[in-house]
Specification:
Layout lengths: L1 H13 L2 E5 L2 E4 H32 L5 H26 L4 H18 L1 H16 L7 E4 L2 E8 L3 E6 L4 E5 H6 L3 E2 L7 E9 L5 H13 L11 E7 L4 E9 L5 H19 L14 H9 L14
Antiparallel strand pairs: 1-2, 3-4, 3-7, 4-5, 5-6, 8-10, 9-10
Length: about 300
C-alpha cells in the first residue's frame, strides 16, 4: 500500500500544473519532454556537424572544404530550429499564434540586431566561398594574422604578437583582405638597401644576387630579383626580392636576409650609405668665425647667398 501511495504521489507531481501559456497548462512531464527534445536536437546537430567535418578530413576534400563547412553549419541550425519547434508543439503552444503575437516585435528586434544579422550572413557567405578558412594567413589593417576559428558572428585570428583578434565577419566582406595562403603559401620577400654614390653598380648588383641565391630560406623555384629602384638624396637605392614558402616567418626571414647583405657588402668593401649634410658658410661669416678663434678649419664658400 505504501508503494502504491508513493507511485500515485509521483504521478500526481508529474501531472501537476506548473503554469499555463494561454489555455495550455504546462506540467512537469510536459516541461521535461520539451527540455529533452531540445537537448536531443542539440546533440544530433553537433553529431551531424562533427560527421561532416570528419568526412572532409578523411577524404581530403580541400577544394570544397568551405562549402561543406557551411552546409554543416546550416544543418546544425536547421536541426536546432526543428527541435525547438517540436518542443513548443509538444507543450501545446501553437507556432502560428506565437508568430502572430511576436510579429510586432520582429521589426524592432531586427533593427536592433541588424549588425548581428549582417555578421551572421557574412559568415555563411565566407564559409560557402572558402576564400578565408581556418589556418589561412591573412593581412588585415597592415597586421599579419593566422585564422584560428570562424564563428557565426566573428572570426578569431592570432597575430604575430600572440594576440587574439576578433574580426566581425561583415568587416571581412567589406575590407580588402590579403590572404597569403589562399592558393599557396608562396610569399615574395623584399629588402631595400642604399649604397653610396661612389659604389660600382655592377658589383652591387652581383653581390645582391649572390646574397639572395645563397639565402637558406629561399624557394629554389624562383631566382632572386635585383632592382635599382631610385637615386636618392644620400644613396643609390636597391631592392632584393626572394620567394619563401612561409609568409608567417617573413619578419625573421627579412632580418636574416638583411644580415646576409650586410656581411656580403662588408666583405667586399661596399659602403651602405647613410644621410649626410654638408654646411657651407658665406665668406663674411667664415671670416668672422675664424677671427673669433672658434674654428680653424673652415673653408670659405664660393657661393654668395
Amino acid at each position: 500500500m505504501a508503494n502504491d501511495n508513493a507511485l500515485d504521489t509521483g504521478r500526481g507531481l508529474l501531472k501537476a500544473e506548473l503554469f499555463s501559456i494561454g489555455n495550455t497548462p504546462i506540467t512537469v512531464t510536459t516541461l521535461a519532454t520539451m527540455v529533452a527534445i531540445v537537448v536531443i536536437s542539440y546533440l544530433v546537430a553537433r553529431a551531424v556537424r562533427a560527421a561532416i567535418r570528419r568526412a572532409v578530413e578523411r577524404r581530403g576534400l580541400t577544394g570544397t572544404h568551405g562549402n561543406l563547412r557551411a552546409v554543416g553549419r546550416l544543418l546544425q541550425y536547421a536541426i536546432l530550429l526543428v527541435g525547438l519547434a517540436i518542443a513548443l508543439q509538444t507543450g501545446g503552444i501553437e507556432l502560428s499564434a506565437l508568430f502572430a503575437v511576436s510579429a510586432v516585435f520582429v521589426v524592432g528586434v531586427g533593427l536592433a540586431l541588424q549588425n548581428i544579422a549582417q555578421n551572421f550572413v557574412a559568415g555563411i557567405v565566407l564559409l560557402f566561398e572558402g576564400a578565408i578558412k581556418p589556418g589561412d594567413i591573412i593581412e588585415i589593417d597592415g597586421r599579419l594574422a593566422k585564422v584560428v576559428r570562424m564563428g557565426a558572428r566573428a572570426t578569431i585570428a592570432r597575430s604575430l604578437d600572440e594576440e587574439d583578434l576578433i574580426i566581425p565577419n561583415h568587416s571581412l566582406m567589406l575590407a580588402t583582405i590579403k590572404n597569403l595562403s589562399m592558393n599557396d603559401s608562396l610569399y615574395r620577400l623584399r629588402v631595400t638597401v642604399g649604397v653610396s654614390y661612389g659604389s660600382d653598380l655592377d658589383q652591387v648588383e652581383r653581390l645582391l644576387t649572390e646574397a639572395g641565391t645563397g639565402f637558406a630560406k629561399r624557394d629554389p623555384t624562383f631566382e632572386p630579383r635585383v632592382l635599382l629602384t631610385e637615386f636618392g638624396s644620400s644613396s643609390v637605392d636597391w631592392e632584393l626580392s626572394v620567394w619563401i614558402q612561409d609568409p608567417w616567418v617573413r619578419r625573421s626571414a627579412g632580418s636574416a636576409l638583411r644580415r646576409a647583405i650586410w656581411n656580403t657588402f662588408r666583405a667586399e668593401g661596399v659602403v651602405i650609405a647613410f644621410p649626410q649634410v654638408d654646411v657651407h658658410f658665406d665668406a663674411p661669416v667664415t671670416s668672422a668665425v675664424v677671427a673669433l678663434g672658434k674654428v680653424t678649419n673652415v673653408r670659405p664658400s664660393t657661393e654668395v647667398a
